[in-house]
Structures are given as structure tokens and as C-alpha cells.
Amino acid sequence: MLDYKHLIDYKVEIMVNSIIGEIYNSFSNEELKQLDLFMQTSQWQYRDTVFKCHECILEFRSRDALAELDKSIIFSYIYEEEKYNDSKLRFVLNRLVEAIREFILLSQNAQKNVFTEKVWMDFLLEKKLRKNIQYNIDKTTINASSEYRFLHQYFKSQESNIQILNLSRDVKQRFQSFTDLIKHADLYSDLVFIKNYCSLVNFTNVFQSTQSKLSLEKLNEIKAKGWHEIYPEFMTYISLIDLLIDRDNTDKYYTFKENLFNHFDIWNDDEKNNFLVGLLNFNTNQINKGNISFIDEQYDLYQLFEEKNIFKIKNYINSGRINNVVHIYLRKKEFKKSEEFVSKYVPLLPEESRDSCRHFNLARILFEKSNYKNSLRELLRVDFSQDAFYSLNSKLLLLKNYFELKESDAFDSLCTSFKEFIRKNKVISETHKTYYLNFIKTLKKLYGANNSKLKSIKSEIESNHQLAEKNWLLEKSAIISK
Predict the structure, then answer these.
(1) DSSP 8-state secondary structure symbol assigned to residue 449
(2) What pTM was estimated for this model as a whole?
(3) Which residue in 77, 122, 188, 294 has the fewest CB atoms around it within 10 Å?
(4) Where are the domains of the chain?
């Protein structure tokens, strides 16, 4: 049993009267056991706040004591030492509702219920939650996800259908009502399918796991309905699926890009973020495969992002994205743009990551401008312990600076300590270790090499496919041999 006697004693909303309280009350004991098992074995177990929220409500529900539970008790159970924050708790409660919705749909799907898109709506209606759902649907449709918008259409058609069946004697009107209801249910079901199909194909691509078991026949069936010719939501998702399946098809990339930006404003921030990841991943993969024309494409994308204020989308900018943009700008020798970008967007980062991101990127810019001493000064202000990226890349850039400045003692010392750091590091993959160790080995050979050795060193660089900073090493070997 939960020990909640120490919790704060003032009262806020009693949970038995809330949506989440009604949901937990509506479940049978067996259903509660299944829900608890789902929460413990699904992705939600690793979202501590959501799982603890469920755990707290379940404890009170199992004792038929929801009338004793209020929001302050839940908050204190989740955040033991924090002062009550209603908006913070509402966010967790909404996430818990998402988890329960997923549980309902998955359990019905396991029972081969082909009407899973209807299951949740019927559940809400049967449990007398219609007023709460109606209020929230009417209140927030502008920032809702595409799935939510289509569910909203279905819900509205369901409401309309009930009224017409109860009040209208017009046969044609009743027939049209049924037709509209079926269409909106079909739209919602098909959108849920293609969104999940898209996620599964992407997951398969990333992790090289078992190929998608979702029906290609179903996908083709949806395409044949022509939804994508009417609804930009379908058009965008289907063009992304086509790209994820045929991952090297540049025509499909440009089709997806056009579809996305022609209707960019219909998406909420989370959906925009997901689509942009698809665009940038394709670009990066093409560059990594040697298709250098996509350096220009990625540069143009970042210019478009600036024009559309995409970098200011909620939760979009982070230190990794700043590092990537600066990398592309520097490859285009756009030093001023790089500096302006760092100055503009680093202040948007969480306070704890600003300094390292700023100093690391300024060090990169100064290095590319051949201002090696000032680059070193910036690097010395980077917190190497912050994460693996800064630990590795700051040391790598430090080594390149020592090489350019011909600081022999510092260069030799760092080569030794850098190798030890890589070998002992448990975070870096074995593949990345090989890339960095080969870089150190090759750079040591280049340092002070005479012309008689340069030809064989250059040949080694060209033939080595596991080598960090390969293009830079080739440039150095060419300059030294002149």
C-alpha cells in the first residue's frame, strides 16, 4: 500500500470526478490487472512520471478509495520534494490517458477487432465521458495533431448521426448521415494505419530489424482510395513512406519535400519535427555516401528553415542541431553565417548546455578561418565531461590545432592521452573507436613526414574506409607534398 500520510493536506480537484477517475472506475478488476501489466511491460514503464501517476491512481482504485484521492496527492507521489504545479501534473495525466488509449486499441487489435478506430470512441461514449471529450475537442483544434483532427471529424459525424436518427424522418438525410459517418471512420482508420506504417518502416530502417509485417496490400488499398489527392495529410505521409521504402530515390525525396512545405502549416510542432528528421536523415545519408551535391541541398534546407522560423519551433533546436548546421555552413565556407547562427540560437538552449555548445562551435569557426590560437582558447572553455560528442570532437579539434601550430610536445602528449581515452571509453562503439584511432595514427604519420613518405601515406588515407576527418587529412597531405 502506498504511504501517503506525509503528503500535503490542502485539497485540489478530487480525482473521482475527473476524466481519469472515471476511466479507472470504469475498468473491471481484470481489466485493471491487464492495464497494470501493460504499463509495466510497455514503453510507459520507462517514463517514470507517467508510470508513478498510474501506480498512485491504481492503488486508490484497488481500495475503492478514489474519493480520497486528489491531484495534490498524485503530484506529491510523483514529485516528492516539489511544490504543487497544476500544469505539470496535467501534462502527466494527459500522457497517462494516451497510454490507456494505446492499451485499449492494442488489446482490441490482439482480439482481431477490425474496428479499433471505433473502440476508443465507443468506450468514451459508454462511460459517459462525452461532455469532457466534447469540451476538449471544441476547445483545441488548431494545434491538434492530424490524427486528432480526423478523430474530431469522426466524433462530430457520430454526434450528427445520433441527432438525425433521433429527430429526422427524411430517408435521404438519414442515408447521407450513415454515409458520412462511415467515410469519417474510414478516414480516421486509414490515417492511423499509414502513420503507424510510416513509424514501423522507419524503425526497421534504423535498427535493421525484421521487415515490416504490416500489410502492403492495405497500404495499396488506401492509395487506391485516392485520399492523398484530397487530403494533404495523406499525401505527405504516403510520400514519406515511399521515400523510406526506396531510401536512395532522390525523386521521391523532392516529392516528399514539396508535399511537406506546400502544406507545412497544417501540422503541429511534434509532427513538423518528425517530418524534418526524415528530410535531414536523407540528406545526411546521401552526403555520407559521397553524393556531395547534397551538401548544397542541406545548406538550402537550413536557409529555408531560417525563412520559415523552423529553428524556433518548440523543442526543435538543441545543441546537436546547432552543431550540424554549423558543420554544413563551414563546409560552404560561410563563416559569417556560422557566427550569426551560433549567436542567435545558442541562447535558446538549456542553460547547462549553452557554454560548451557556444565555445565548441566558435572554436570550429576559428579553426576553419586558420585562427588556431584563438580556436585553442575557445576549446579550453568547453566542458569535455558533458557528453561523448564534446569529449571526442573537442579533443580531435584540439589535436588538429596542435598539428597546424606545430606544437610538438602538446601534439605528442595529446595523441597518447587521446588514444587511452578512446580505448577505455565504454560509451563509444567499436566502429567509432576504430575511426578515431585510425585518425590519430594517420595524423602522427603526417606530422613531420618528408616527401618520400607522403605518397604512401596519401595512398593509405585514400584506401582506408574507417577514418575520421578523411577529407581534411587528404587536404593536409596534398599541402605538405607541395
Answers:
(1) -
(2) 0.65
(3) 122
(4) 1-139, 141-296
